[in-house]
Design a protein that fits this description.
Layout (H helix, E strand, L loop, with lengths): L5 E5 L3 H12 L3 E5 L3 H20 L5 H9 L1 E4 L2 H5 L4 E4 L5 H14 L5 E4 L6 H5 L8 E6 L8 E6 L5 H12 L4 E6 L6 H17 L5 H11 L6 H8 L1 H15 L8 H8 L17
Parallel strand pairs: 1-2, 1-4, 2-3, 4-5, 5-6, 7-8
Antiparallel strand pairs: 6-7
């Protein structure tokens, strides 16, 4: 893709800094936006650490890494950061009201033809778009974690998202070397609509004593040829995120099959969130 974009990514966490890295890697100017300088410093440090692994594996040179980092800037001023970009990608935590507030602000400050995208994994794009004056230019860009390595971008078309916006976002995503899956705007979209019930059922199987955590993961890993078992995967995703997505699907679809496993909810209430907290279904403290 020859077109070079100016992009703002809102959120410097795991998903946000991964999205920043990918856009910068493919030659685009990217501004990483967060509320605190400390968060931005951690985000840039994460990008640098990720790129260093590519150098160690001889997939990139240090000169290439320096060029990528030079294309990344940071800002705590959201309105200023989005004022002159082609694309804004929101990548904050899964909270509908927080996202709506951000989209109101972004809509008021961004160029009239800028596309506003959300990295949400479950929240309605139509609801988010409804708080803006450009619902035709609001779309879902659901990147997978870790963003630099995972090939998929799940594109979600809201009820009022224009075909032109969808085509442009697909082209930009494919220009990042990604594979695109297009989903309609229903709770959980495609990926989590299918994945989260599996993780939830694995948690129920553990709670009911159908098998140990190791047995459950072993059966799915080697019996279904998954790269890792569902309980291990849940730890990497974050158990709190799994609960949030299940709750969104349960409320949005009204089907009891999406009811969150009580064990999963109890673990989150105890602070057992998976890899990021050091303890989930498995011990990650070492």
């Amino acid at each position: 893709m020859s077109e070079k974009l100016k992009v703002a990514v809102i959120g410097a966490g795991t998903m946000g800094n991964g999205i920043v890295q990918v856009f910068a890697d493919f030659g685009h100017q990217v501004t990483m936006v967060d509320m605190a300088d400390a968060a931005l410093e951690r985000g840039v440090a994460s990008v640098s650490k990720s790129l260093a692994r590519f150098v160690k594996k001889e997939k990139k040179t240090q000169q290439e890494v320096d060029q990528i980092l030079a294309r990344i800037s940071t800002s705590t001023d959201l309105e200023a950061a989005v004022s002159d970009v082609n694309l804004v990608v929101e990548a904050v935590f899964e909270n509908e009201e927080v996202k709506k507030d951000l989209f109101r602000r972004m809509d008021g400050a961004a160029l009239a033809d800028a596309i506003l995208a959300s990295n949400t994994s479950s929240i309605s794009i139509t609801k988010i778009a409804n708080v803006t004056k450009r619902p035709d230019k609001v779309i879902g860009m659901h990147f997978m974690n870790p963003v630099p390595l995972m090939k998929l971008v799940e594109i979600i078309k809201g009820e009022l998202t224009s075909d032109e916006t969808v085509a442009q976002t697909i082209a930009w995503s494919e220009g990042l070397g990604k594979v695109v899956g297009l989903a309609a705007d229903y709770p959980g979209f495609i990926a989590n609509r299918i994945l989260m019930p599996m993780i939830n059922e694995a948690a129920f199987a553990l709670m009911e004593g159908v098998g140990t955590r190791e047995s459950i993961d072993t059966v799915l890993k080697f019996g279904c040829n998954f790269p890792m078992g569902p309980l291990t995967l849940a730890d990497f995703i974050g158990l709190d995120i799994c609960v949030n997505i299940l709750d969104v699907m349960h409320e949005g679809l009204g089907d009891p099959k999406y009811r969150c496993c009580p064990l999963l909810r109890r673990m989150v209430e105890a602070g057992k969130l998976g890899v990021k907290s050091g303890q989930g279904f498995y011990d990650h403290s070492r």
